[in-house]
Inverse folding.
């Protein structure tokens, strides 16, 4: 049976216990900063922009939906052509899709990817309209917490590793391998599917996407980041109100941050 870590405030969490948990889950301070620094290196600078990376309003003769859609197509074409010319794999949800974009991509391609993301978001807003967009945002923020909870369940139970790298496996076999409730496992997997983590090619069977496959690789640094965010940051941020109400008006707020309240410890998050 998978034993989920409980955050009980009746006792102090020892440094050795947290260190042991870190080792079990594959996180390390070095891995966390390595992945963070790698991500930051790919961000570039604000001046690295290509034509069409920003989303201008367009002229009065062009409908906003068509104008922004053309920017999406233009930036997507630029990125696709670069990958094709350099013989890199195209982005895909398939389990054999590339895990990330090349670190050698030039500034104009990076800017085009940024512009593509920005324009896609604005296109979604226009397609929804103001009323539905506000409703969607409310749903998005509440659903984001559910997405994180699902990701934590996948990570903590090590469910991705129970799915074969190639081929499909039944929900029942995965539940039996992990010794967890099949009913709960099905609900978790099907919620993960809405975020392109796992597909269900045949009813009752699951296989990998490029996202879930990363979580099945113990040595992959991004897995450590997911563990840190879902097992440490996620429960800690939920205790911001409690930390403020108990220590917000005193000097102790400097040492009693939400992490300390959530885990009932004086240790820092990465100690």
């Amino acid at each position: 049976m998978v034993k989920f870590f409980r955050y009980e405030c009746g006792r102090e969490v020892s440094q050795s216990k947290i260190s042991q948990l870190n080792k079990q889950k594959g996180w390390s301070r070095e891995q966390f900063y390595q992945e963070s620094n790698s991500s930051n290196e790919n961000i570039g600078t604000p001046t690295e922009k290509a034509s069409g990376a920003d989303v201008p309003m367009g002229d009065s003769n062009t409908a906003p939906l068509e104008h922004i859609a053309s920017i999406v197509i233009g930036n997507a074409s630029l990125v696709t052509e670069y990958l094709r010319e350099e013989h890199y794999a195209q982005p895909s949800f398939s389990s054999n899709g590339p895990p990330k974009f090349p670190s050698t991509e030039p500034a104009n391609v990076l800017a085009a990817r940024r512009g593509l993301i920005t324009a896609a978001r604005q296109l979604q807003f226009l397609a929804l309209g103001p009323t539905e967009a506000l409703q969607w945002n409310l749903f998005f923020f509440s659903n984001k917490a559910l997405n994180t909870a699902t990701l934590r369940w996948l990570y903590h139970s090590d469910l991705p590793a129970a799915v074969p790298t190639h081929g499909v496996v039944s929900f029942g076999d995965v539940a039996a391998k992990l010794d967890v409730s099949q009913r709960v496992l099905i609900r978790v997997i099907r919620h993960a599917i809405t975020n392109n983590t796992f597909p269900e090619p045949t009813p009752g069977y699951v296989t990998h996407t490029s996202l879930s496959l990363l979580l099945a690789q113990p040595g992959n640094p991004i897995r450590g980041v997911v563990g840190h965010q879902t097992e440490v940051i996620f429960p800690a941020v939920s205790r911001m109100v409690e930390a403020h109400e108990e220590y917000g008006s005193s000097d102790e707020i400097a040492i009693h941050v939400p992490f300390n309240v959530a885990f009932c410890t004086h240790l820092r998050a990465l100690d």
